[in-house]
Request: fold
Amino acid sequence: MQEIIAKAVYFHLADTNVYCVTVHSCTVKEESGKEVQLLDENGCAVDKYLLNNLVYTSDLTGGQISQVFKFADQPSLFFHCQIRLSYKEGECKRSSDLCPNTARGKRSVLSSLNDDDNIREVDVFSQSMTVFEIDDPINSRSVRGLDERPLEWNWQNVCVPTITFGILIALLGIAILISAIVTALLCLRSRSNKLELSD
Reply:
């Protein structure tokens, strides 16, 4: 069973004032594929202990104080959120405005908004986020290694330049030719020795 470990962090979203922004359908995924939903399709928090409903301080800026969390025994997390952009006509109307203060379950709030023609959605993916354990030593060497993926040896990933491949084939051909000549000479020498002994 995997557990989630948490610590405080702040998410901040900003853009120009042409649109009204709603962040929704946020999930967090670990490297092996396990996924947890943070915000539903309306932008409402699914689990307020992981991430509460976002607070929008302007039409295009929103955020929330949250917990840094990770899956046990997994160093990296990948966040995926969708951003709904709608043209601002007067007041900014968001599906998340109707979210309950505590996340109880999913509701279809988006259908209550009338002007769906002015809505565009954008997927936002994060780079990997690494959360260290309290007992993990953090030094410059371990931080530099975060960007490097461990190399897995696979013969399909081997790429040899054409010139090198040609040289290797030529050397192999020469080795086979020399082996054939040496074998032929040894056979001839053996026959000549047998002929001399029989005389």
